[in-house]
Specification:
By secondary structure, the chain is α+β, with helices and mostly antiparallel strands. It is built from twelve helices and seven strands. It has three domains: about 15-125, Butyryl-Coa Dehydrogenase, subunit A, domain 1, CATH 1.10.540; about 125-220, Butyryl-CoA Dehydrogenase, subunit A, domain 2, CATH 2.40.110; about 235-395, Butyryl-CoA Dehydrogenase, subunit A, domain 3 (Up-down Bundle), CATH 1.20.140. The longest helix has about 35 residues, at about 280-315. Pfam families: Acyl-CoA_dh_2, Acyl-CoA_dh_M, Acyl-CoA_dh_N.
Length: about 400
């Protein structure tokens, strides 16, 4: 069934359905065991491997480089569909897709070509940016020091989402002088310890825990000549979360509709002999579905803004791209509170359409709220409205980076 036939609206391009049909069988396989894996805390090693084998991790690469030439709106629509199957898997691949954008946008040909080639071979990248230590805001305790012709890495990272499943870890650190430096670290290199100690009540299967680097030797070619990120990075990474939330809401909407259709027990004070004909219950189902639809529409509109930045940047107009990047950040920021509120409300409201049996752990309906609440806690939404208001009133552009640390 196409996205249009399912009532979720047209995709972002004429070819979207053909592109999505390639991956939907994998999405369905992932979905089949999502609730069970969440309940048993079984990490999605197999599921991510299925996506890699299907070519999902090379979506943004050119066809000539084993990719699909997917636009950013196409990518984000696919991430909504993947998130409806299992939002953990989307989050585990977030750093990989971000690093792919780094490679595609790199101003250094040798670095760009090397990483496009690795990604084309199916290699994946996890996150090694955030820390939970005592470093001040804007700095890192993790240090990458020059060591002869190479480098030596020491430090600890947290929120290393996806690194346990990846071939490489994208690192943000400081050099011996305190300057920012980026690198790609082989996950299985001597001295790299990836620890599955993430204990959040949601997104529990993303392996977002600790990575320790102890005297890890890196060759010079693994240190990025540009320590910055691609121009639309802030909007991109937050938009992955919005797409994930839209997918969670879509899954919740489909589950509650199915369960209402299957339910045979009714309340004596209800409105019909069948729950599926009770107008108050149908109203709840409709509200949940409406929230999911709206969240998806907003996310795809945001994706158009990010695509504009990419196209302008590729054309070499850096000044216009900088301005477009600020506007994309605003578009995403002013969507965060709206989308998260829609999805958090929907994933609570769905229980009003069902009886107490819907709280059974075997159904796993609670995971939708838990996962949405966890995602909404990243880069706190309480600051987003202020940033947008400051832009609207004073013309202030959003910050280019969000960092956490000691004040």
């Amino acid at each position: 069934m196409s996205q249009i036939q399912a009532g979720w609206g047209a995709g972002p391009s004429a070819r979207y359905e053909d592109l999505a049909e390639r991956f939907r069988p994998v999405f369905r396989r992932i979905c089949e065991t999502a609730a069970e894996r969440d309940r048993d805390r079984r990490l999605p090693h197999e599921e991510i491997a299925w996506l890699r084998e299907a070519g999902f991790t090379t979506l943004r690469l050119p066809r000539a480089r084993n990719g699909h030439d997917a636009t950013l709106p196409e990518l984000f629509n696919l991430l909504i569909e993947l998130s409806a199957a299992d939002s953990n898997v989307t989050n585990a691949l977030r750093a990989h897709f971000g690093f792919t954008e780094d490679a595609l946008n790199s101003r250094f040909p040798a670095w760009r070509e090397a990483w496009i080639e690795r990604i084309a071979r199916g290699e994946t990248v996890g996150s090694g940016v955030s820390e939970s230590g005592s470093a001040k805001v804007g700095s890192f305790e993790t240090v990458l020091r020059r060591d002869g012709a190479g480098w030596r890495l020491n430090g600890t990272k947290y929120y290393t989402t996806g690194s346990l499943f990846a071939d490489w870890i994208h690192l943000a650190a400081e050099d011996e002088s305190g300057a920012p430096v980026g690198a790609a670290v082989p996950r299985r290199a001597p001295g790299v310890a990836v620890i599955d100690d993430w204990d959040g009540f949601g997104q529990a299967l993303t392996a977002s825990g600790t990575v320790r680097f102890t005297d890890v030797a890196l060759t010079a070619d693994l240190v990025n000549p540009d320590p910055g990120r691609f121009r639309y990075a802030m909007a991109f990474f937050q938009l992955v979360h919005l797409a994930t939330l839209a997918g969670i809401a879509r899954a919740a909407a489909e589950d509650v509709a199915r369960l209402v259709g299957e339910r045979r027990r009714v309340y004596s004070h209800g409105n019909a002999a069948r729950i599926a004909e009770d107008p108050q219950v149908l109203q709840v189902v409709g509200r949940v579905r409406g929230a999911a639809y709206a969240a998806g529409v907003v996310a795809l509109k945001n994706a158009e803004a990010v695509q504009r930045v990419y196209e302008i940047d590729q054309a070499g107009d850096s000044e216009t791209a900088e301005a477009a990047g600020a506007v994309a950040d605003i578009e995403v920021n002013q969507s965060v509170t709206v989308v998260t509120s829609l999805v958090l409300d929907a994933t609570t409201l769905l229980f009003d359409a069902l009886g107490a049996s819907a709280t059974a752990r075997s159904l796993g309906l609670d995971r939708y709220w838990r996962n949405a609440r966890t995602i909404a806690s990243h880069n706190p939404r309480i600051y987003r409205d202020r940033i947008v208001g400051d832009f609207a009133v004073n013309g202030t552009v959003p910050p280019k980076q969000y960092r956490v640390g000691q004040g």
